[in-house]
Amino acid sequence: MPKKEDSVVLYTDGGCVPNPGVGGWGAILIYNGKERELSGGEPDTTNNRMEMTAAISGLEALTRSCRVTLITDSEYVKRGITEWLPGWKRKNWKRKGGPIKNVDLWKRLDEAASRHEVSWEWVKGHAGVHYNERCDTLASEAIAREKVSVRSGRST
Q1: Containing domain of residue 110, as a range?
Q2: Cβ distance 106 to 56 under 8 Å?
Q3: Tell me, what CATH number does 101's domain have?
Q4: Contact indicator for 54, 63 with CB cutoff of 8 Å
Q5: Contact 23, 46 (CB under 8 A)
Q6: Which of 55, 49, 28 is nearest to 109 (CA)?
């Protein structure tokens, strides 16, 4: 059981321009009065994959078990982890309607979350929530960096 001092607030966001296309994600960890920003991008991805990558990267950055409040503006991430994932796991990662999209990331997110005590919260995107807006900026900056890399023939 994580101790009270091991409480973390994790804001996440991801995006893609166009979708699918060049993507970026941002995450902010807030703990013990400190903030840590994380971001990254991919040259060929989707918005949902970047939203998931932000959550995974934030959780994987934690070096010990923590009580995490993860705040996302992605209903896909929140509903996926809290509503859909238990059924997918019971059915051996299968569903009636065909293959599960992004199953590789769902498995990673499930693994990363299992090391912590996570409560999942959804906020409306682009609604003035300070840290959500900052994560959006981090994701946009990562997209811009990735586009420069793609144009120059480099991959990050």
Answers
A1: 4-151
A2: no
A3: 3.30.420.10
A4: no
A5: yes
A6: 55
CB 51 within 8 Å of CB 14: yes
Determine, yes or no, domain membership for 57: yes
Three-state DSSP at 74 gives: coil
Distance of CA 11 to the CA centre of its chain: 8
* 119-148 confidence digits (pLDDT tens): 999 999 888 899 999 999 999 999 999 999
Inter-residue contact 137 to 26 (CB < 8 Å): yes
Is this model's pTM higher than 0.85 or not? yes
Return phi, psi of residue 34, to 5°. Answer: -115, 160
pLDDT for 64 equals: 94
> Is 124 part of any domain?
yes
Residue that wins the pLDDT comparison between 5 and 57: 57
For the record, the structure tokens of 19 come out as 């979708």
Coil/strand/helix, residue 97:
coil
Structural domain includes residue 131 = yes
Residues ≥6 apart with Cβ < 8 Å to 79: none
Q: Give me the active site residues, please.
A: 13-14, 51, 73, 126, 136
